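Researcher: I'm preparing a figure for a lab meeting and need a structural model of a single chain. I don't have an experimental structure, so a prediction will have to do for now. The sequence is pasted below. Please return the structure as C-alpha cells so I can convert it later.
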Amino acid sequence: MYGDLLDLPDPDPVYHTYRAACLFYMGKYKEAEAEVDRGPRSKLQSRIHFHCAHRLNDESKLMNYHQQLSDSLEDQLSVAAIHYLRSHYQEATDIYKRLLLEHREYLALNVYVALCYSKLDYYDVSLEILAMYLQAHPDSAIAVNLKACNHFRLYNGKAAEAELKVVTDGSNGLDMDNFLIKHNLVVFRNGENALQVLPPLIGTPPEARLNLVIHYLRNGEIEEALNLVKDLEPQTPQEYILKGVVHASVGQQFNDQEQLKMAQQYFQLVGASASECDTIPGRQCMASCFFLLKQFEDVLIYLKSIKTYFYDDDDFNWNYGIAQAASGNFKEGEELLLLVQNERHLVDFCYLSWLARCYVMNGKSRLAWELYLRMDTSDESFSLLLLIANDCYKQGAFLYAAKAFDILERLDPAPEYWEGKRGACVGVFQQVIAGRESRDSLRDVLSMLRNTSNPQVEYIIRIMRKWQSSNKEGGFEDGPSM
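Model: Understood. Here is the structure written out cell by cell.
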C-alpha cells in the first residue's frame, strides 16, 4: 500500500519511513535500512536505523543511532528493547521500571518487566508483576505464555502446560496454531513432536533452533546438532553455551581435539563474562571449561558452589562424581555416581570405568568385579577388565587382580598379563599367610595358575602346596597337579 502511495504524484516522503517499518517487521533489514534513508529525518527514522543495526550486527551504526535517541517514551522503549535483545536484562529492567513509574496506565510495561525478571531467573518476581497485567487481560497469549514458562522453570512441564489452557481452550483465546504455544508445548512435553514442530519454526522464535539442537543432543544425533549450530553466530549466553556443548560432544565422540578446544573457549567466554560469572549457567560453563582442560580441582570449586540446585540431576552428579574421583576423592565420587539413575548413563563405559575405579579405591573390589561380569564381551569390557586388573593390583586387592589378569591372559596371551597374574597370585598367597585373605582363595589361585603353560607355574604351585601341607589346620587339600 505504501508503495502504491509513493507512486502517486508528489507523495508524502514519510511513506518511505512507514514502508521501512513494514520491511523491518518482515525481517528484510537491509531493504528497511535503504528505504528509511529515503524518508525525512525523524525520531522514527532513527529508531528504525537503531533496530536494523542491531539485527545486522553493525556495532558502529548501533552506537551512532543510540546517541541520536532522546528521553522520549518511544525512544527509551527502543533502548530497553535492544538491551533485552542483547541479554542486558538488568539495564532493560531499569528503563522499564522507570517508565512504569511515570506511566502506570501503560499496563504492557508490566509484561516487559516480567520478561526481564524471568530472564534473570527471578521467576517468582516475574509471576507477581505479570499478575497485574493478567488481571486486565487474562487471555493475552504473550502474558499467559510467559506465566507458563515461569511455571516450567519453577515446577515442571505439566504445571506449565496447565497454564496454557487459558489460551488453548478459551473461546476467545488463540488456538493451537499460535507458534509460541506450539513451540513451548514441545519443550513442556520434554521434546515430544520436536521434529514435526520445530524445523518450520527456526528463525521465528530464536529458541526454536536451540531447542531442536537440544533434541538432537539428547537423542545422540550429534552431527545433526553440529549442522544446526555451525553457521550460528552466537549472540546470547544460551547460544554460546549450546555451541560449546555441541563442540564438546563432537570432540569427545570423535576424539577431535580442535572441537574440544573450541568448546573450552565458548565455555570460558560465558563463565568469565561479567554478566554470567555469578549465575548458575556461568559457573557450569567454568566447570565445563576446566573439565575439558582436566583441571579437576578447579572443576570442584565451581560445582560445589551450585550443588544444592542439582541434587537429583543425573548429568550434574555424573560430572561432579568424575571430578571428585579424578581429584582422588573416591568416597565422594562413588556416592555421587551412585545417585545417577538414567539408564543410558548406567551402561556408558565412561560411567562404569569411573565407578569401578571408585569401588576399587574404596576397598570394594568385588563390586567392581561384578560390574565387569554384567557386561557383554566387547572392546569396552576388555578395557574395564584391564582397569580393574591394574587398579586392584595397585591397591593390594590381589585376588580380583589375579582374576582379571587371568581372563586378560586367556583373551590375549601377552607376557605382561602373565606377569601381572603371577604377581597377583603371589600377592594373594602372601595375604593368606598373613591372615588377611581367606585360605579358600588359594583354591582359586591354584586353578588360575594352571591356565598358564609357563615353566614358572609348577614352581609356584609347589611352594603353595608345600605351605598348605604344613598348615592343614583349617585349610584344604588340593587336587593333583595337571
